[in-house]
## 1
Amino acid sequence: MGKLDNKNAIVTGGANGIGRGIVDHFAREGANVLIADLDEEGGAMAAEACTKLKVKAVFQRTDTSREEDVKAAVARAVKEFGRLDILVNNAGVAGAIGLEDVSVEDWDRTFAICMRGVFLGMKHAIAEMRKAGGGTIISISSNAGLRGSPPLHAYGAAKAGVINLTESAARLLGRDRIRVNAVCPGLINAPSSRGLLPEGTDIEETFSKFQPIPRAGSPADIAAIIAFLASDEAAWISGAHISVDGGQITADSGFFPATSGYYAGFQTHHKR
């Protein structure tokens, strides 16, 4: 038996990277999954892989910054599975650039996906979870939301908002048996991270220098804690934000220290 047997979940941004890791882990633990993403090819592949594990899985093309898309994804999950037990707000974007160079358009886009998308997911999932007698909402924040992290200015600010919204939602929804938590990944070897680094960078070697445990994180590392929080084993956990980062948030070097070659690499990469 899996720890998520007979549970029904939505994972936003579930077609690739951390999201795909969560989808795969959920399926192995017995959950039915709706994959909400803009990547139709990746989403279809993720759904097909899940069905081979004898669970139900569907892909729904979803722009999490658009209310009608999020509402439709929740409705589709309920139609396909009968109820909604778990929502994972994973979809996000990150841009690494000097503060004075961030355009208003990029700032707004980052907040629309990373912050508004989380709010919309919560807004439309709550009623269905109440009908089901409870549920759990887990949002992906970041260690950049815990500490100012240049050059991730817009991203870090949005992820800090995710933590605050998680805490207020947990206080509101506890009486409905809806638990709300956030996970704060550190440096993860995933497509979203690779896209921020200069071409040819060895991501494993680079990331291994920035936390006490000398390796980059993997989507599987994040998926494991998400599955735990989604399970009945975490029945007494709500309003928490949990760092999953190899100890990096407590390291003396800080997060993306401005004096490091890593930060300089970001700046060089994004000025090309």
## 2
Amino acid sequence: MRRTPHMFVAALLAGLLSFVAPVRLSADDNGKETDRVENAGKVAKEIMNVPDDIPQSLIDKADCVIVLPSVLKAAFIVGASYGRGVMTCRGGDNFRGPWGAPSMMALEGGSFGFQIGGQATDFVLLIMNERGASAILSSKVKLGADASAAAGPVGRTAAAATDVTLRAEVLTYSRSRGLFAGVSLEGSTLRPDNDANERLYGKKVDAKDVVLHKAVPAPPSARLLLSTLTKHSPHHSK
């Protein structure tokens, strides 16, 4: 069949659209990840600025912090609950440096979906030692099984040095309807979201390389998160 000029133009447009569509999808996805990072910064700032929040002694001892802000568009789904947020760690091999670029993380499991009662909820998790940080950055970790976890104590003057908190690798907190408290997330799983990392940073990059090896610089969307943590806990203490 002989091709007409109109047929040639149509074929050319179809080819161009095949390239444009993936680019548009990538840009949209990057926007979603950017929003999550920015929201994590807002949650961290709000929680750190209330009088009875996480004890200062625990923040200063934490190697890493995970913030999972609630997302209004059904972030927690009954029967398939999940939350997405970010994990940032202190730099250096011994976690004594400044807070670094975040990795995207996912929290999954049915148990905490029941606990929060369907309300919009923010989660903050403190990772208290290198073993817990390395495990979470490497693969899916079940809280209470693969990593010891406990509801974190609240209040800057709270007695943080209890047997439970001293042994726990992960201390967990939640905020729902303005109420902030320690909450058990045992049975839920944490995992790196490397697909989201690719969308956020524009290239394939492993969570451990982002957080521990400075493979990429922190994006502008992480500015509030990192400045908040730096302000409230600039130095690691043991």
## 3
Amino acid sequence: MTMRFEQILAEGVAECSYLLGDDAAHVCAVVDPRPDVDIYLETARRYGLAITHVFETHIHADFLSGARELVERLGGQAKLYVSEEGGAEYGFDHETVKDGDEFTFGSLRLKARFTPGHTPEHMSYFLFDGETETPWGVLSGDAFFVDSVGRPDLLGKEQTEKLAEQLFHTVRDIFMALPDDVIIYPCHGAGSACGPDIGDRMSSTIGYERKFNDYARIEDLDRFKEVILGDAPPVPTHYPRMKKVNAKGPEVLGNLPRIEPMSVERFAAAIEGDAQVLDVRDMMGFGSGHVPGSLNIGAQPELSVWAGWLIDPEKPIFLVLPDDSKVSDVLRLLWRTGFTNFGGYLAGGMNAWREAGREFSQIPQISVHNLKAAEDITPLDVRKPDEWEAGHIPGAQHAFLGELRDKLADLDRSAHYATYCASGFRASIAASILKQHGFKNVRNVPGSWKAWQAAGYAVEET
């Protein structure tokens, strides 16, 4: 017998799901699946396991749940388990999990524990060997992270106070009451906005967190509320939408979202007017020439998150790809934050567009060396507020990327701007937004803050 335990990371949204079971009993469970569920089916098949249970720790805000997709793909073999604590309601068939419920997969035993605070209905799953009384691990969902804890402020001000108090007691009375050697397996890693300053490691132990997790070490409720709410990062705009979609039940597609290739002529006709054109090439390719009015978000894992921030899910998306063979990878990343409405993609990409004699726009790139020497260019820092406060280019103006569209009125349309972030990825998104909104003098800074520091140039702190 071998216990099978797989932590599966969806980069970009930094989401950790789990497949766990026993190959002697040939059964397993999946916890918090993402929508592109083939990875669970393939992993179970590789180990000779049947997925019989699919669990959700809570109603997710940051990514599209794949629980219904997975259950449907299994053809009725598995059941979907969710918590109805705190009055949670769902628009799909499910089994209800209560505090103390246990589930057995061969020698592996899961025990549900009610751990509210991040959300009112949140469940964590304690992991046991057989009938032993002490868990060896816990799937902590968004209640407890490496170096952090879940944020309690995603359901509106009217619930934040109560959730913060519940979270304090969840951390103190449940997690900190566990033995030091219990392993923590969270639902998110670094990069997620579901908690402040989540650590880089993919797992931890109670003992380590007891010593080094600043949030878990706070013993006063009022102090805990002050710190957890004060440290909370900006809330991505897609979070409220994802909450509603996941509670109702995402549409089951049975495969990746559908999209059709389009000739230059069809593509050009389709995007006339107020269309969403998303160009997923890298910053250098986009800068050298793009379909006028395009938004640039490179085809990296972060595409999921920034699409969530910046794209309207109600309008069809028209894609420009670096290569037509990348369409499945891009659809997968966009699906993870709920995008399924696609108008089509430009067959042959920008080469076909240029060869057809179509108009294209450009965004110049500027090195940090030329930026430092320029006297008439304002650096525009689009990083998060905490990144800006830790250090920025002298004389720069700050406008966080996620809120940039709301702050365009604060910018001088006659000024010359050079957008920068940590490495240039977000800066190119920002430059494309400025270009969309009629800013004429826009440049992007490849390498951005990392290049500025590497060059040894002066830094200003707030």
## 4
Amino acid sequence: MGVNHACASGLNHKMDRETAANQYMPLVSIVIPAYNHANYLDEAIQSVLKQDYPNIELIVLDDGSTDNTREVLEKYGDTFLWETHENMGQANTLNKGWQMSKGEVLSYLSADDILLPHAVSTSIKYLRDNTVLTYCDFNLIDPDSKIIRRVLAPEFSYFDMFTKYICHPGPGVLMTRSAFERAGLWDSSLRQMPDYDYWLRLGLVGSFKRIPEVLAAFRVHEESQTYAKATERKADEPVNIIRRFIATQELPPELKEHSDEALGNAYLISAQLHIRSHRFARGIKNLKASFSLYPRLFLKLRTYRVLFNSMFNHFMHKLGRLKNRLL
């Protein structure tokens, strides 16, 4: 295992003491879990180093990569804390990073995504009162970092997150350490949607706040988790997450009575993942289970958008990338 024990907070700027005294500037710890994304890692790291917020702790954890990720990290020397360890998955790597960190505010950035320079400074302004997490609008970018389109994140509704299987936060989230400690660690058994599972639990601790600005970019490429074909186990995660959540959490009555709707939408998302991975029989089976649990899904426009996405998602993104190249 390779270890570099130097840690830098306030990476690019010296703290202006007078400004710090008059503003809320907690230490923000950003963890980058890196696994075989060496081609994109440098851009992700630079996007953190170039933040205009002066009080940042960056931790990059190489999760047993087999490409030249370590070489990318070595060139930074002791600029920030980085380590390499045997592969243990995204959830375990994030848990490790956050437990190592010192920040009052926590964040993470996928090794193939980027933050805009004012992402942290803007987000901190929204992290007030009962807000435990902020999230933002973001751009979809291609492997060459060209913008495909802007994604407008929905305004936060815990009801929608639970019943419609909507994952509001994307790249660029910040959360309070106190909320993280109350909600617990990410579930290391989940490989497809550990973030959604965690947001469900964190949302019971406090409210989320949408920032109506583009503060981050999500990279679309063939190896990304979101667009790669899901294994059967990964495609079943939506159903397993909701079933377990309903069984283990003390839900308010107004949520509990909508459990069939939540499970129906979980089966719908699971069907999407199976169909996208060309397991059509399994996808149709889960689609039937979805309609059986919540027949109103027949009448929802979102249902047909999800099904369209399951069949044409890869084609549409390839078309968008081709368009970018021609422009």
